Amino acid sequence: MLSTSEITPNELPVTRRPLWTAGFFGVLATQFLGTFNDNLLRWLSVCVGERIGNLSEPMNAAQEESWKTLMLVLGGVAFTIPYLFLMPLAGSLADRFSKRSVMITMKVAEVIIMTFAVWVMAHGNVTLMFVSVGLMGAQSALFGPSRFGAMPEVLPSEHLSEGNGYTGLATVVACALGAAAGFRMFGVIDHGITATGISWIAFLPAAASLIGIALAGTLTSLLIPPLAAGGPDKTLKLNPLTETIPALKILWKDVRLVRTTFGIAFFWFLASLAQANAEPLGTDVLGISVENVGLLLAVLVAGLGIGSVLAGHLSEGKVELGLVPFGAFGILISSLLVYITGSMVDPLRAATEPQLSFYLCGGSLFWLGVAAGMFNIPLETYMQYRSDPTQRGIILAACNFITFLFILLSLGVFFFMRSYLHLSPTAIFAVTALGTIPVLIYVLRLIPDLTFRFLLYLISHTFYRLKVHGRENVPEQGGALIVVNHVSFVDGIMMMGACSRIARYIIYADFTRMPILKPFADLMRVIPIKASEGPRALVKSLQAAKEAMLNGELVCIFAEGQITRTGQLQQFQRGMMKIVEGTGCPVIPAYLHGLWGSFFSFRGGKVFGSFPKLSSYPVSVQFGKPIKNPEDANAVRQAVQLLGVEAVERDKTRELIPIRQFIRRCKLDRNRSKVADSLGTDLTGGRVLIAALAMRRYLVREILQPDEKMVGLLIPPSVGGYLANMAIALAGRTAVNLNYTLTDEVLNHCVKDAGLKHVLTTKSFLEKKPIKLEGAEWVFVEEFKTKMTGLDKGVAAVQSYLPSWILDRWLGLTKIKPDDLLTIIFTSGSTGEPKGVMLSQHNIGSNVDGVDQLLNLESTDVLMGVLPFFHSFGYTGTMWLPACCAPKAVYHFNPLDAKIIGKLSEKHKTTIIIATPTFLKTYLKRIDKEQFAHLDMAILGAEKMPLDLAEEFLKKFGVQPSEGYGTTELSPVVSVNIPDHRTVDSHQIGTKLGTIGRPIPGVAAKIVHPDTMEDLGIGKEGLLMIKGPNVMQGYLNQPEKTSAVIKDGWYNTGDYGMIDNEGFISITGRQSRFSKIGGEMVPHILIEDHLTRIVERPDSDDVEVKLAVTSVPDPSRGERLIVLHTRLEKTPNEILNELKGKGLPNLWLPTADSFCQVDQIPILGTGKLDLKGIKETALKQFGP
C-alpha cells in the first residue's frame, strides 16, 4: 500500500495560486497602457505628418499617395528598428536585473519620451516626431523581454496559457483603442495644424493624453511583485553587432524554439501588413474617412483579442500547439474572404448607402483577427514554457529580433506592393492568403498528432463538458504510466484532451486494425494489446510500453482491461506492473467521472443504449499524485478509487439536491402511477407533486415557525408519510423520522436532542400505539385535507406546471447548499443510546445516484417499500430512490405482514424489494411464487445474509438475492452485489455470494489494523474503513463521538472484514460482536450461524429468531460466551456435540451452562438484533 515515504519531495501537494492577483493585474495594466500610448503616438504622428506634408507644398494625387504610404511605412519602421539593435541589451537587462525594476524604469522613461514627443509635434518637426516614435520603440524593446519573461514568475504554470490569453487580449485591445484614439485625436486637432506646427490650444487634449497615460502606466507598474534576477552575475551586452549572433546561436540550439520563433515572426509579419493596409482599405476600398479608419482597425484587433482569449480558454491550463494549424487555416480562409468581399464593395456608394459586402468585409476582418490570435497565443506560451529560465531573457530577445526583422520585412513588402506593383488593398489580403498555404502545410506535417488530438478535443467538447483537475501531477518531462478507469468508448478521447502532453495509449488490438481507425492509431502511435493472441504477443505489447516510458514518453493504460459493464471499478490487471518494473518511472492514477450512462457507455447492458443528450455531458478527469514503486496493482486501484471519491465531492455543487430531482421526476411521471400503498392510495407523479406542494404551503403558513429548522415525523411507510417528507424538504427544513418502536422515554430523548417543536403523525397511528410526547406538539396529517384552502390547492396546481427552474427559485430551493442537512436519523440503539446521525443533501443525493447507476432503474420498475422511514435503508432506499429516479414505489407499514405484501406485489407487479434477511425469510415461507412473478431484484442489508436462505429464495422465486452493506452513518449504502454481466465476448462479475459486493461509485473502502490503523491491503482481515460522499456530517450535538469515528474523511464502521483482489468486501464480524477469550478474538456471528443451522428445522414455517450469542466478563479468561435462546427441541449438550463437529477451535465453543432460555430474543423494529438488550439480559443471568 501507499506510504508517505513513497512520495518524493517534488510530488508533495501543490498549493494552487489564483490567476487574478495584484501582481498579474499590474503586469496586465502596465502592458495595456504602454501599448495604448505606443499606438496613439504612432498613428497620431503618421496622420500629422501626412497633413503637414500636404500643407508644406502642393502635391498631385500620385504624390499624395506616395507621401501617405511613406508616412505609414516610416511609422512602422521607426517603431520597429530599435527592437533589432537593442535586442541583446533588452535580454541581458531582463536576466541581469529584477524584471520589475526594468519595467518600472522603462515606464519612467516613457514619461520623459512622451514629453519630448509633445514638444516636437507642437512645433511641427516631422523628422523629430518619428524620432520620438523610435524612442518609444526603444522603450518598448527594452520593456518587452522583462514583461514577457515575468509571466512565468508571476503566474503559476497551470494559469500560464490563460494569463497569456488575457495579456494578448489586453495588448490587441490596446493596439486597437490606441490606433482609433490616434485617428480620432487627429480629427480633434486637425483644425489647428499648420505647415509650421500645431496651436497649443488645439493640441492640449492630445498632449494631456500622451503624458497622462504614461504617468498612469508608471503607477500600475508599482503593483508588480518583487522578482528575483534570473542571472545576476551576467554582464550587460551593449553592442548589438557582437551580441546578436551569440544570442541567436543560443536560440538556435533548440530546434523547437527556432520553429516557434519563426511562427511568432510570421504572425507579426501578417499583423504588421494588415495594420499598414488598414488605412488604404478603409479610405480607398470601403469609402470611410481617415478619422474612422481606427474603427476598422478596432474590428480587426477585437477579433485578435477574442482569438487570444479563446486560445487561452481552449488550452485549459496546458500548452496547446494543436491550435496552431487551425489558426493558420482560419487566416487563409479569412484573408480570402476579405479579398472577395472587399472587391464587391462600391466605394462611391459606401459613404451614402449600406452595402452587404461592406459588412461582410468587416466581418471577415474580425474573423481574420480571431484566427490570428488562435495561431499566436499557443506559440508565445510554448516559447515561455520551453525556454530556460536562466537564459529566458536572451532567448526571448533573440525571438524579438527575428520577429521585428519580419515586421520590417512586412513594411518593405507593403511599400513594394503599393508603390511598385500598385496592388489594391484587397489584393494584398489575397497575397496574405497565398503566403499562409505553405505555412499551414508545414505545420500539419510537423505536428499531425497534436493537430489530431485537438480535433478530437473539439469534437468531444461538442458533446461533453470536460473539466481537468490535478493536471500538475502529470510530469512535464520524462516517462510515466497513467492508469485510469475504463467507462466508455470515448475514454481515450477524453484523456487526450486532459493530458498536457501527447501520450501513447495501450488499446485493444482489434480496434487498431479496423480500416477506419488504423490511420489514426498509427498517427498517435498507440500500443495494441490482445491477451487472446498468446503470451508472446502480450509480452511484446508490455515491452513496447516499457520502452516508450524509458524513452521519456507518457503511456496511458486502462488497467481494468475492458470497459466496465456494471458501472463499478473492476479488477486491475497485473500486467500493468510489468510495464513499470525496473523503469523508475512513476505511476499517475487518474479517474474519469461522469461518462457512465452516456451514449458510449454500457449502462443498461449495451453500448449506444441510451439516447444522446441534446446538451453536453459534464465530464471530469482527476489526476492523482505520482506513485513511486507501487506495491501491486491493487495499490494503484485503491488510489484510482480514492480519486473517484474526490470527483464526486468536487461535483456536488453542480448536482441537483434530492428535492429538486423529485420535482423533475414528478413532471416526467406526471401521468404515470408513481406511489401507492396498502391503504388504497395510488397517485400519479403530477398528483404527488401537487399534494406535496399544497402540504408545504399549509405547513409553512400555519404550522412551522420561521426559525424552525427541524420537523419530526412519526408515520409508518405509506403515501402519507412519503408526501409529508417531501413537503418538509420542499419547505427547506430537516426531516427527523422518529423510531416508533422505541420506548416513550427514548423517543422523547430524540425529540429533545433534535430540538423538535412539531411532530407530524396520524390519529390512526396513535390509536394503535399511544405515545406520550414531551416538549413538542402533534400535527395530524389527516387534518390537512380539511384545513388546506382552495387557494393552497390552486397555487400548488399552478406551481406544478411551472418550469422546474422557476419553481426552484419560487420555493427558494436554489439557496439550499449541498452540505445543508436533509435529515437526522437516529441510530437503532442496538449497542447503546440512539445517536442522531446528520445527513446532508449531498449525502443522500450521492447515495441515490450511486445506487441508481448500479441498478439501472427503469420506469417499468416497481419498488416495494416495507422498511420504515426511520430506518436509513428505508429512508434513502425506499423513499428518496423512487422519488428521484424512475421506479414506482408501493408501501406497506408492516414488513412482517407477508400476506399483504404478497398481494400488493402481485397487484402492482413488484420488480424490486429492499429488505433484511429476517424479513426475507418470512416472505420465502409465506408468499406464493406467483405473487413475486415479476420480481427480478431482492436487495438485503442490515444483517448478514445466510447462504442457505439465498439458495432457497432463488430456487422458489428464480431471483438471486443481492446482499448489500451500509450503516446509518453512511447514508446508508456502501456496497452491493449486482447481477453479473455475461456476453459472448465479455464476462464481468457483479456478485460473489458471501460478500457484500463492491463499493458503489464514488465510495472507497480499505482494511486497516484495528490497533495501529495501518493499511493492510488485499486479502487480510481487519477493520473496515469507508470514505466517500456518503459519510455523515457527524453525530447531532456529539462532536467527540464524531471525531472518534471519522478520521481524515474515513469512517470507522466498527466491522471486521477483508477485500479481495477484485474489490469485493466480506464482513467477518462486528467489532462489538467479538470476544477476546484467552487472548484470541472469537466471532459471535460465526458461532451464531452454526448454532442456528443446528437448531432450525428446514420444513418449519416458524421465522422467529431462535438464538443469539453474546458475552459477559470472566475473571479467568477475560470473557465468556453466552447463548440466549427460545424454547429448543435439542438440549445444550446435543447442540454442543454437533457444534464440535464443525471444526471450530475449542476456545470458540460455549459451555453447556452458558445457555440461557428466554421467552423472546430482543429484536429492534428494523429487524436487527437488539445487541444492547441481549447483553443486558445476559448480564442479569451471568454477570458478576
What does the model show?
The protein is α/β, with parallel strands linked by helices. The chain folds into 4 domains: 22-446, MFS general substrate transporter like domains (Growth Hormone, Chain: A, Up-down Bundle); 450-654, 3-Layer(aba) Sandwich (Glycerol-3-phosphate (1)-acyltransferase), CATH 3.40.1130; 658-1008, 3-Layer(aba) Sandwich (Rossmann fold); 1078-1184, 2-Layer Sandwich (GMP Synthetase, Chain A, domain 3). 51% of the residues lie in helices and 14% in strands. It is built from 39 helices and 37 strands. The strands form 9 sheets. The protein has a 9-stranded mixed beta sheet with strand order 11-10-19-18-20-21-22-23-26, with helices on both faces. It has a 7-stranded mixed beta sheet with strand order 3-9-8-4-7-5-6, with helices on both faces. Strands 27, 28, 30, 31 and 32 form a 5-stranded antiparallel beta sheet that branches. Mean pLDDT is 83; it is low at 1-15.
Structure, briefly:
The protein has 1184 residues and is of the alpha/beta class.
